[in-house]
Structure formats: structure tokens, C-alpha cells
Amino acid sequence: MKHLSNVMNRVMNRVMNRVMNHVMNHVMNQLLHLCFRHQRYACLAALLLSGTSVMTQAQTQPPFIVLNAASYGAQAASSNEANRRTLAPDTIAAAFGTFTTQNGQAFFASTATLPTTLGGVRLRVNGVDAGLFFVSPAQINFAVPPNLADSANATMVVINSNNAQVTGGCFNSGSNSQCIIARSSPGIFSIKATGEGAAAGLTTKDAVTFTPTYKADLSPADVDAGTTASPTALVLYGTGIRRIPAANPNDANGVAESISLTLQGVPLNVLFAGPAPGFTGLDQINAILPPEAAGLGIVKLVVQAKPPLATPFLSNAVDLRIGGLLPPIRVNSPIAFDQTINGELTTDDQIQMLNDGTGRTYFFDVYTFRTTQPNQTILVDMRRDISTAGNQLNSALLLYRVVGNNLDQLGEDGDIETLGNGNPVETNNAIMLMVLPLAGDYAIFTTSSNVQPNGVGKYSLKLSAGPIRQLTYGQSLTNETIAATDIRNSSNVLFDAYYFQGTQGERVDVRTTSASYISLLILHQNGSFAPQGWVGDAGSIGGQARVAPASGLPDTGIYIILVTPFEINKTGTYSLSLNRVTALGEEAMQSRDEDATPARKLGERFANSRAVTRTIEE
Which domain CATH number covers 560? Predict the structure, then answer.
């Protein structure tokens, strides 16, 4: 990481001096052909504000509406309406409505110092004249005055060329259109000037050669994620960022420490955030792309001010397409049976993307082990380190078989959930009980659950030869014991585990009784915690729990039976039987259906298409 930081500091020192000339060539010429070089100080900001799509959404708004010129009211994942209505001093903004200009014409500013009257039109924010980039009968582009105090009810007044005044408000999908002046109103410019689509930005490795983040048709272009030895710098343009209070006002990186820039939720290393040289209201962000993001495809970029320095409003989300191949998976270390490893998920770790269309990403570590005999039973136990203050990691496990340099996903676990509705939910750990039919190499992925994208935190991981006993059809066990030394999850639920080999379509009947506790049975396929059939309990001590899927087993393979009390910290003796039947009695349909399906099922993540390297990460 030190090497990466040193390289990028050298690169970004040159970026700041050279990048704006490239912006003129790459960004401005793509936006609108009306941008002439003698207008360069005002042109970029003015012509980025060409969209009018918000008008159809704002018919019930005031006579004219004002919004952040970069975001266009498209704040990412924000339910806070104040987010849309907030403007920071020095923000480039756009007003849409009906205005009277001289001769009904459009006018562009042509000087570095923006005029406060253009085409006979003025715009005032809280009584202070705003600098004007552009005015037309339908749109005014302006810079929010730089020295405004915070205000919860800022006024927006346009004085037309005929001296008629009209008062407007700020864009809002709700009924409140009162403008707010605050230190934070981040927006990122898109190349389409709509607040959405491809980012209006550049990438560079040396501050000499710059590559646009968009194609000629304004769709996202493939971006090289770079490597640790040759990192890629990303240059983005926005507004409403420079006035966020700086965590370190005396350094040269602007407000870099005061913002977060995330790529699909993954935080980037921001080297600079602040005014872009020579352009009123235009802000620039320089950041490093994580090499681990290679091959992710189209991802979302979002800027947010960090609390408590400023209100943590979100920017709009713009698109970046990360090209290349998914990087090989790095193995953190081998893990031996009965070994416990203390690890930590961090934002520098490898990245997975959930393969369900949501684009959610997750950090992961990898540990490998080898089995030398078939039908090896394993217990993998991952626990969040609860001794670390603030550690909110929601643990999850994935298991893959390593075949050459490829991965075949075998199992997953979000923590055996509640083991029935009668037990409390626990989120500290993940437990995976499996039978490995083949000898060979395997990889354990430690990660966060589906409901916690980009989860980080400390954990412990232990691999054991799983205490899973084999059952055969027709076998009955008596005087078996749930003991305090049995498998235990972090909710203190105790259970025993068994497995049997089943055939697709077979009808099975599994029963357990106990005079010590209320019985609960769970039947699931090896490696999956989606229960097959019914999970029942009789509702009283001494009653029978029965699992008998009426439609038969869904696949040929290994099935796991879990026997557990329907309460925590409960021990006692039980009996268990497994039978293959030709037909099921009606009572099988009456068994109580308990939900043992993890709400955060992991599904297929893309790791099964990635190569595995034997390199141990330092």
C-alpha cells in the first residue's frame, strides 16, 4: 500500500497541472459543439447544464425550480428529500421555468469572471446576486454565491429583463420546495448532462495519457482497473463539494478526507477533492481505482460527505465500466483441521459481486485445505469478534472445490439462522456442516452476508472434522444425547448432525422424539440450507418431530439431518429413525412447517468463474 500511495502521489501531482487541458479536448467537445475556446472559463459548466428532463417531473413545483446541475435531482439511494433541495455555496446550479430575456434570445457568459446580469436577467439567492453562465427563456445556469450563510429557507428570485420578478424553489418530488443552503450538496457530472449514465471523467496512469470514461455514443467505455505496480487514477468532475469542511485544512488535497467516493459501495482512495483549476463552481475528484475491481463491468460511483463535518448527503450515481478479466483469487493462507485463524475483512480485500442483477459487492478472504479421503465430514465455524468495539460484521461462509485453477461452489451458510421459529436470531457467526464426497483441495471464503454488502470487521475461523454421523435407511437410534459439548451456534442452540445418501424421487420419513425437550428436525441438501420437505415439532415434551417430503427428494446426493431442541441451551436424550417409504401417511402433510431458511441466502457469487493462485497474500 505504501508503494501504491507513493506512485499515485507522483502521478497526481502532474494530473492537477495537466488534466484540465485534456478535459477541454475530451469532455467539452463531447458535450456540445457550441463550446468555443475563448469561452473556456465558463463554457464547461454552462454547457453541462443542457438537460430539461426534470420539467416533466416538476409540473406541480413553483414558477421555476432550481437543482444541482450535476445531479439533476437524481440523488442515489436517498430517501431524504432535503438531499434534493440543498445547494452549497459555489455550486453550479440550474433553474428551469419561463423567463424573459432580451429579444427572447439565449446568452452565454464569455469571461472568467461571471456576470451577474446576462441578457438583461439577474438571479438572487437570499438577496445576493449569482454569477450567470447561461440564460434562455427556459433555463438559467448559475453559480450559487460563495459567501452565503447556511439557511433552511433560502429564497430564489429571478429579475427578468423587463424587471418582472418571480420567486422559485428547489426541485423536490414531494410538496416542500423550500431551498436549503448548506456546506454539502455533492453532484457528479455525467457525460449526458442528466445526472445519470456514463461519468464525465478521465483515467490516467502517468498524467500524460488520458482516456475518457465514455464512448463517442456517450455510453460507458471500458476502464482499466490497473495493478498495484501500475495503478489507474480516476478523475471525476462534480460540484457542491469544495465547501465541505476540510478535516485537515492546511494540506494540499482539498477536502479529500471529508468525502467518501464509492465504487459499487467499495470505498476508493481519494487523493484530492476540491476546485478544478480555472472553472467557476467546477469541482474535481482524483482517486485510485482498486485493482480488485477488474472485470466487474458497469458499476456505480457515488460521492458522500462524511459526518460529522457535514450532512452526509449522497450525490447522484454515475456509471463506470470496469473492463478486463476478473483477477485471480489470492489465498490468504492454508488452514489445517482443528486450527483457529483470526482474520479481518477490510476495504483492501478481494471483491465479489452478487450474481443476481443487484450489483452488490462483498469483501472476502480465502483459506485452503486438503482432504485425503472421500466422504470427509467438516465443520467450518466463523465468528464475529465481539470483543472489538463497533464490530458489526455479519458473518457468512462459502465453500468451493478447487479443480485445477478453477472453483466449483459446493456450499454456503449465512449461519443456520434460527434453527426454527422458537429460537432467537443470531448474527455473530456462520456455521457450515458438510460432507465432502471427493478427496482433494478446497477453499473457504469468509465474507459478509447478503444483507451486509461491503461488510468489514474482525473474525475467527475454525475448521474441524465435522461430527456428522452416517445413517442408512431402516436405521433407528435410541438414547442419543444432545450435550453441552455438541455443535453450538452463537445463540447457544445445540444440535447433532447426520447424513445419508438419497436418490431423486425417493420418499423418506425421518422422525425424532425426546422426553427431555421439544424436538425439532431440519432436513437439507448437502451444502444448502434451503430445507427440503417439512420441519416439524409436536409442540410438547415427549412429542414427535417428523420430516417427510411428500414429493420425494429433489436430487440424488447427500442429505443432512439436524436434530435440535426447540429452545436454547437445552440438553437431553432422543431417538432418531430414517426410513424409505413407498407412500406417506396423511399425517406427514400435517407436520408443523418451521422456517429454517436463512433470509440472507448467498446464492451464486462470481467467484466460481475465477482462477485460483497459490500466492499467499502478505
Answer: 2.60.120.380
